[in-house]
Amino acid sequence: MLKRGALGLTVWLSLGCQTPLGPSDAATPPGDAQGGAEPTDGGPLANTAPLAYTPEGCNFMVRSAPMTRGNVQGDTATFGAAPTPAAVHANWASDPATTVALVWTTDADTLASAVQYGTAMGNLDQRAVGHVSTAGNNSATRVTAHEVNLCGLRPDSTYYYRVGGEGHWSEIQSFKTGPAPGQSGYDVNFVVSGDSRNGYATFRMLQERIAMVTATRQPDFQIFSGDAVLLGTNQIEWGQWFTAAASAMRRMPFIMVHGNHDALSVNYLLQFAQPQAGVPEQDELYFSFDYGPIHFVVLNDTPYRGDIAGGIGGTQIQWLRQDLTRARANRARVPWIVVNHHKPSFSSSNHSDANDTLFIRRNWPPIFDEFGVDVVFNGHDHQFELSRELDAMGREVSGRRGTYYLISAGAGAELYPTGNQPWRRYSESVSNFLVVHATERQFEVTPYRLDGTAITEGRLSLQPRSN
Ligand SMILES: [Fe+2]
Ligand SMILES: [Fe+2]
Is the pTM of this model over 0.85? Predict the structure, then answer.
């Protein structure tokens, strides 16, 4: 499908999960034929330049996605016909120990973009304001998202917050900040899920199951491995996705990995606030951060087709090598290196020999191998799979010299059959999620089926590398 990407470049997007779609077999996104043009119907948001500002008390700049109209607004600004905040959630746009980004949607006329927060539910004594952006050219694609960044938070602390503005506040929700850098003895608990598209009822059940399985230990956050919706420009689908995720988002931040179905859409970029790696074309699509004993890297394997070499094999690799060089040097303090991206290099299911898979496999695993990445989490092939311990070529190695690849996909999307490849240790065609528990000395992954039973054959328990 030829479309104008969210960042204003003309691109070919591959939305199919089998092979990239050509121009003749692609469905046209609703109301978005050559879409993505800026709204032309005026309205209250007159500022057409992308925003770039430093939120109060923060040491980083927020850049909104281009092709939006937006303003920094307070809590008494204009309210439209549907001012009640929807899709309220927390992300991280910077250090998880001291910052958070709170994001929600309203109708396009509501400008109020404020947050009240505090460490006691009954005392939201602090206040911050943020910005509002609107994009999309009709009712099916239009998105109005508000984002407020909070900085200077206390590490390892639960915060309560509500968003909106005077007279139109959301319900109170919560999130927890990460541990202080170097905080010893911290144990991290997080969840990995992915690929919910078309299956929002299942996605909701999966989130309910996650809550049951983790009832005794609240996850610190959830990593979503991509393909949230069938078509990233369809705001109606995003509404369904956020509704299904609401119970989880009331309690934990989400870290999003960009999938091919998310389609580089402005809807994706506006509704999630993530770190900006300093490469404007890839803002919020690839980045890294430390959380306790783990260095997390998120990569984007659906870059612009016109720049696939730059996106996967060029600019992003340069950034990745620099990032992993720093992470490796910091390994004594932060022992685990974990990479997340959508399309698996080593799958034995539908996409094991797809062209894009082969391209990624040639480019990224050699770097993972060189820098000693411990674990890679992927989505895209709708099943669960755990690899053997692998070198850059996908050959089995031993003794913590290799990398483990885990696929957690099928949080609602139709399942694919399992397959067999030499790199596969175990796979199962089942809706699933992963629960990860990590300390400085241990990294444990337990996969679960939608019914709440553990996939014991897919368990992984690692001790740190000796180097
Ligand atoms: Fe995918
Ligand atoms: Fe998928």
Answer: yes
